[in-house]
Design a protein that fits this description.
Blueprint: E1 4-10, H1 14-26, E2 29-35, E3 47-50, E4 62-67, H2 74-77, E5 90-93, H3 100-107, E6 112-117, E7 127-133, H4 139-150, E8 153-157, H5 164-172, H6 174-191, H7 196-216, H8 222-229, H9 235-244, H10 248-267
Parallel strand pairs: 1-2, 1-4, 2-3, 4-5, 5-6, 7-8
Antiparallel strand pairs: 6-7
Helix pairs in contact: 5-10, 6-7
Amino acid sequence: MIHMRDLLLIGCGKMGGAMLSGWRRAAVADRYLVVEPNTDVPRLSGVYPVTDFDALPPDTRPGVVVLAVKPQVMDEVIFPYRSFAKSSTVFLSIAAGKPVEYFLDRLGAGARVVRAMPNTPAAIAKGVSVLFAGPGVTPEQKALCSGLLSAVGAVEWLEDEALIDVVTAVSGGGPAYVFLLIEALAKAGEAAGLPADIAMRLARGTVIGAGALAEQASGEPASVLRENVTSPGGTTAAALAELMEGDALVQLLTRAVAAAAARSRELAG
């Protein structure tokens, strides 16, 4: 179990707020110092919100500085935090498209930087995060970052930073794709005659149940789980014939992931 005195969170939007909820639940720090000018941060036990760097307590000594602002505005906020770029502090960035080199240019070549791509289920400790460590990051600092993100879900490490863009497209944005599936399934049920509210409850409950079953049967390939639901010549087989014709769904998701990965690379510029 990890623990530090100060955890400094820069940006507390949806993703930053999701992670903060998980960290408070896991009690990973004594103080959660949150810099967020645009949102009312809840004044919860141990959470100290401020509007900018200059308002931080003078005794701030973060073990980790989490950079959770949008990549488009990172240049506007990052430079003052150069003062924390010491070997004892690691910067953990969740900004899509911003490579380690970007942060070293702005924080100094000696900064210890880890890139991460979490997703919003972190708010209920069901997230999945993928990390990449920049130069100089110690095993202890890697363990610290692993511990932070393990507190809100599963963790994977990459050796190739370029793959972070693909991770962003698959698991980073993945919850939105699943929510779209719920919307689409509910609309299809409504079009077939179900009342809208019942169609939505059925669609939502089905995705929740299928996800829980996939988690419980984690040793089984998804293809086997699909086949277990599909009787030859039955109703599910008829539906899957439409969804799988010409690999249409696979091709659609392949294009979607490619588009998201390309956008992530654009943000690096």
